[in-house]
Amino acid sequence: MTPSPPAAAPDAVVEVQDLHYRIGQRDVFTGLNLRVRRGAITAVMGPSGTGKTTLLRLIMGQITPSAGSVRVFGQAVPSLRRPALYALRQRVGMLFQNGALLTDLTVFENVAFPVREHKRLPESVLRELVLMKLQAVGLRGAAELRTAELSGGMARRVALARAIVLDPELLIYDEPFVGLDPISMGVIVRLIQSLNRTLGISSVLVSHDVQEIGAIADYSYLLSEGKVVAEGSPAQLNAEPSAVVRQFMSGAPDGPVPFHYPAGDYFEQLLEQPRR
Amino acid sequence: MLTATRSGIPLWQPLLRGIAQVGAVTLFLLRVLGQCLPALARPRYTVLQVYNAGARSLSIIMLCALFVGMVLGLQGYDLLQRFGSESALGVAAALSLIRELGPVLTALLFAGRAGTALTAEIGLMGATDQLAAMEMMAVDPVRRVVAPRFLGGLIAMPLLSAIFNCIGIYGAQLIGVTMMGIQSGTFWSQMQGAVGLSDVREGVVKSLVFGLACSLIAVYEGYHAEPTAEGVGLATTRTVVTSAVLILLLDYILTAAFL
To answer: Which pLDDT value is given to residue A6?
Structure first.
């Protein structure tokens, strides 16, 4: 496959070039290139432990890369100072894997939180805004519940309402489908799609749920061993002949990504005397 | 050998680690202090923390103060009557409470009651990504979470210490005057004559310093706790142990400075 680049640079909301990142002795990324086009849903897939969440943290400026460039809205993220970084983050919404709702606040106050922190709005306007966002995720009736009373799927929807309350230009989803029942998963898939279409928000979706990604992503990247091993539309990825891609897309337990963690000879280890 | 212990670790390594730790805490203190004024722009959060750290510790502080005062009354009376000067019980109880026992015991109780709660709360917020989520929403968790809790502890400590002193003196009076029959007038007038503003000042300075130390350690440990159940547990333990040692060390330094 010869993947065509998803967009020309001016159209890119996020642009990652030749990214290297190292934790201790381990290379997480070795020359990663990735681009998120404005208004599109871009998926980043890969087996567990390939550093997908680390990539999000690099994009959001929580950690700095060892080498290479990360640009969001044309700004080089690693070189931004805290005020500029915070100004950038106000234009981005992020959905955490577990929702990361503030446990001492109600559902309503959780959604109102970014507005209260960044804007001075009259209480009546704030109330309308929060109720509107809660209505969009179908949880207007749950406004006064405490976060402990929410199911996993509901918590993620509240977190989604909170992520869109400041009308971001870019929405980042970290594993939005993990641990959800089929109905909640369907709800989240539909919400991601409708938010993208109706509000024109660009979206980055980190996940390893091949089917859901196939249904909603415009463009996908498949990461393995610190690099992009394949990219393209879901159809292009499905037609990809490479063994790594085939294994991931079909969910085969063994292949280029081995079933076994690296270990010595099994028989020899059984014969060894256990150390005391 | 000076350079190596028997386990093979150079002797200076723990020392370096200790110095690095002090440096890290100091840098964190500067960061928190820098966010205190912005945090006060929304006083609601700080007031809530004064309530959490202060008002909610009141019952335990008052109960302990009463017992400490009563013990002082008993011991003081027993000691002073040997010299025939039991009428000085009021002075002895008041001075030892105001200058020493009040601030120190309040701080130790505060570290155990409020400090651990602060560490566990902030540590759990970190473990459940709440602090990271704030960062992503462009809200500095040091301003929104840490600074109000630090200020709450700093404000609550001297107030609790003052209440501790009052209840403690009442406890000593209960034993000395009500039980042992010291003249009430002598008890109070001698205290009034002997306790000066400098004694009160010493107590206030101590309680302020202890409040700063306890609150700082509690929020530092919570903020830097490893985001696991075990990590938060360990951080809570460290809060109590470090606070207790530091309070007693600082108490010695301050006492030496005031004498």
So the answer is: 46
Which residues of chain B have a CB within 8 Å of the CB of A87? 138
What are the residues facing A94 on neighbouring strands?
A: A172
The distance of Cα B258 from the centroid of its chain, to the nearest Å, equals 19
Mean pLDDT of B178-183: 91
Quick check: A62 and B135 CB within 8 A?
Answer: yes
Radius of gyration, CA atoms only, chain A: 21
Identify whether the C-beta of residue B111 lies closer than 8 Å to the C-beta of residue B221. Answer: no
Residues 109..128 of B with a Cβ closer than 8 Å to A: which?
125, 128
d(CA B134, CA B77): 57
- ipTM, 2 decimals? 0.80
* Distance (Å, whole) CA A44 – CA A207: 6
Provide the pLDDT confidence category of residue A138 given band limits of 50, 70 and 90: confident
How do A170-174 and A202-206 pair as beta strands? parallel
CB B53 within 8 A of CB B118: yes
Task: Name the residue type at position B172.
Answer: A
Per-residue tokens: A115: 């507005």
Of the partner residues A62, A100, A114, the one whose CB lies closest to the CB of residue B130: A100
B50-109, pLDDT tens digit by residue? 999 999 999 999 999 999 999 999 999 999 999 988 889 999 999 999 999 999 999 999
Task: Give the pLDDT score at A1.
Answer: 42
Q: What are the chain A neighbours of B140 within 8 Å (beta carbons)?
A: 82, 86
pLDDT of residue A237: 78
Is B128's CB within 8 Å of A114's CB? no
pLDDT at A226: 82
How many other CB atoms are found less than 10 A from the CB of residue B108? 19
Asked if the Cβ–Cβ distance from A114 to B137 is below 8 Å, we say yes
A102 and B135: CB-CB below 8 Å?
no
Distance from CA of B45 to the nearest CA of A (A): 12
* pLDDT for res B256: 94
Q: How far apart are CA B130 and CA A103, in angstroms?
A: 8
User: Which residues are A222's β-sheet partners?
Assistant: A45, A230
**Which residue of B lies nearest to A56 if distances are taken between CA atoms?**
B136
Average pLDDT over residues A54-66: 90
> CA nearest A162: which of A183, A149, A143?
A143
Residues 6+ apart with CB under 8 A from B83: none
Chain B CB contacts of A175 under 8 Å are none
Mutate to test the interface with B, among A57, A81, A88, A89 (most CBs of B within 10 A): A89
Distance CA B23, CA A37 (A): 44
Query: pTM of this prediction?
Result: 0.84
Beta carbons of A14 and A60 less than 8 angstroms apart: no
B143 → chain A, closest CA residue: A117
* Exposure of B199 in the CB half-sphere (CA atoms within 13 A): 20
